[in-house]
Amino acid sequence: MLWEAIGFYSLALFLIFFACQTLMATNPIHSALYLVLTMIGLAGVFFNLGAHFIAGVQMIVYAGAVMVLFVMVLMLFDLKAEVRAFSRGLISGGLKVTAAAFLLGITIGSIRHSQLAAVDQPAEALPIRDFTRELGVLLYTKYLFAFEALGVLLLVVAVGVVAVSRMKGGTHAKH
Amino acid sequence: MGSDIFEISVNFVKLIAIFLLMVQIVPLLVWVERRGSAYIQNRFGPNRVGPLGLTQLLADAVKFLTKEAFVPSRGYPFIYYIAPIVAMIPAALALAAIPLSMPIKIEPFQWLGETWGPYTFLFQGYNFGIGIVFVLGVSSLAAYALLLAGYGSNNKYSLYGALRASAQTISYELAMGLSIVGVILLFNSFDFLEIIKGQEAPLHFMFLGRKIELSAWLPNWGIFYQPLGAVLLFAAMFAEANRLPFDLPEAEGELVAGYHTEYSGFKFNMFFIGEYGHMFVASALMVTFYFGGYSLYPFLTSENASQVVQPVAQLLGFNSTNAYNVMGALLLHLVFMAKVVLFLWIFIWVRWTLPRFRYDQLMDLGWRTMLPWALFNTCLTAVVILIMRHPWGS
Description:
Radius of gyration of chain A: 20 Å
Helix content of chain B: 55-70%
Distance between the termini of chain A: 61 Å
Number of strands of chain B: 6
Low-confidence stretches of chain B: none
Structural class of chain A: mainly alpha
Mean pLDDT of chain A: 82
Order of helices and strands of chain A: HHHHHHH
Number of helices of chain B: 14
Number of strands of chain A: 0
Oligomer: heterodimer
Distance between the termini of chain B: 34 Å
Shape of chain A: globular
Order of helices and strands of chain B: HHHEEEEHHHHEEHHHHHHH
Strand content of chain B: 5-15%
Structural class of chain B: mainly alpha
Largest sheet of chain A: none
């Protein structure tokens, strides 16, 4: 229990530090690299909670695949024009502040209204093998609709990205 | 880590020993690579320094250590320095999670006037019970070493090499992960030890819930059920380790030396160790999933290894059960290493046999050939297992 607490607090400090660095770094690639460290720290938190399988999946999917793509895309493209277009102007600034406030409101609201403290601790932790099986059974029975809906959402995003990139000649467009 | 000081210190020594095993096998592999390439190309190879050129390795090490340490002035020094370290971490972490031999059971014994209680030492760094997911997770971080090296050097050849490398690694990771799913379904576990235990049996399969034994002599190895998965995994491992025919990240003809253009001396050597470490992990995974791991079924399994070594141990003057167990585990470790060395030789053999792919061929192979076949393999395995083990649950 004590070791778990030490692990949690050190990981939490690590996470907060790198999350802040992600926001404050001026170089987009440095920012993305800090986000990678944040993702690895998050996997550590899952591991500390005993959810080894989810920690492993977090490493494979977010730290290993998604963030590599992020960093690669940032290195491939020259984003100066987009950055300037996005970071100037009162309207876009106002939108950004509004979005940040909205997100903060949702977070605080969900923390205040959640009943995490009321959840009973299971009498004994399941062995890892059964934990993974239990997870699979839950995903394919109780949460089947959410699971499938997320899959469809990802498909829509993928098709949308292809459609947008093909508009006006795509990568072969003449400026 | 352990319940008392003895167990903790053994586990600690074990971690260091496994790391050193990975580092120490690199010079030997380099020697085999150079002599092997010379053999394949009808040359002599390094044969002047020491017997068979074996001390060439020492000369190389001295050269690596005494070379000038160079830092590109326009680069990002911190990222430049951290990249070689990051290159070694994934392979070292992954290797420590793979069982290199059977767990050693130690009965209570007297030492220094105290009784040290029964222990079970795993012949691996650590065991989380989700071995496969852990290994995939840490080896997916390998792409960062290349990206950081390319970006930190701030050199266009390095950056191109890094971008090629990360695109390649991501493309083949998908096929690699999917080709392993068949094995996980077959042995019904994420744990390496359980997968190897499933292969320590005569070849058998389930037909509508009845167990049918095919042969008492053939072992129950994964290769007999998952030949397609084995081929896909091995091909994807070549791409993950950036070995020829997939060595586009460091294609000399186009990119000077790719992501490590600006690295020299010991920093370059660390990239080298990382690459060979990846080959070692890849071979160990192939052996564990498809070729029975440390067991050699009809002759040597984790059950009979301690009895097999008994005469030899008595000849050497060891007469306790603990000594038999330790020596049995060492024997199985030799079996494992023999299998791994076979695959390492195939890695080297292929490098000096096949030419390099073109980049569009590489992407085609990854996305349009290997990924569909891996998906097909997964679906087929799942359906066949569902039908054949019909009264589910046994």
